[in-house]
Specification:
Number of domains: 2
Radius of gyration: 18 Å
Strand order of the largest sheet: 3-2-1-4-5-6
CATH architecture of the largest domain: 3-Layer(aba) Sandwich
Largest sheet: 6 strands, parallel
Helix content: 40-55%
Amino acid sequence: MIPAALRGVRGVVLDTDGVITDSARVHAAAWKQAFDAFLAERPPELPEHRRPFDASEDYLRYVDGRSRRDGAAAFLASRGLRPTTQELESVTAEKERLFVGRLREGAIDAYPGTIRLLHALRDAGLVLAAASASRHARELIVRAGVLELFDVLVDGGEAARLGLVGKPDPALFLEAAHRLGLTAADAAVVEDALAGVEAGRRGGFRVVIGVDRSATEDTRSALLRHGADVVVDDLKELLGDDEDEDDGEAEVEGGSRGGLT
């Protein structure tokens, strides 16, 4: 059965971090360590220049959903800074080093509610794509055990190869929809980032679903303002299921079909 919010679509494009996998928190923690060190090394022109990176608010507002370079530039601009190209490369390289280190320390799982929705959509005959500005998207999806649930994956490496403009430009999502054989009008986008829901709206997608893992009125309102048609705390809500999922991993092994193209 297709959830009511997704009726009329033939396929769904999902972001990775914070939507499919519980990796946004790891990205945010790595960004905080890299940004706070960067700010501490520079004499402030104004007091706000030393205000630490907020792993919740600043991450969602400036970094989430964007390429590393675009996210770093947006955050530092919010602190009144105009970093050089070399400074941007330095802080993004440090974030990458920290993230990879944290990634190697332990597994990052797929959200059980997302797994349930993916199975329901595949059973209903919809095609599915994962699309992310992160170059780690494939690794994250593989490690979470959900790669076979997707027909298409467009990650940050592929986006760079194709020269796709970063979010909030819709190029990444439009490329994923194209690979599914769909137009934006036939597809939905699922995103947790403000830049991502804005990209879905700009791209003319039939439905834009916002995922609010913070579950606050402020983040919900922000997602709606940026273009989400519907906002949920967890994707299982689209199925009308409010109960906790006991074993999402078992569902992954229960006969997924499909494969990447």
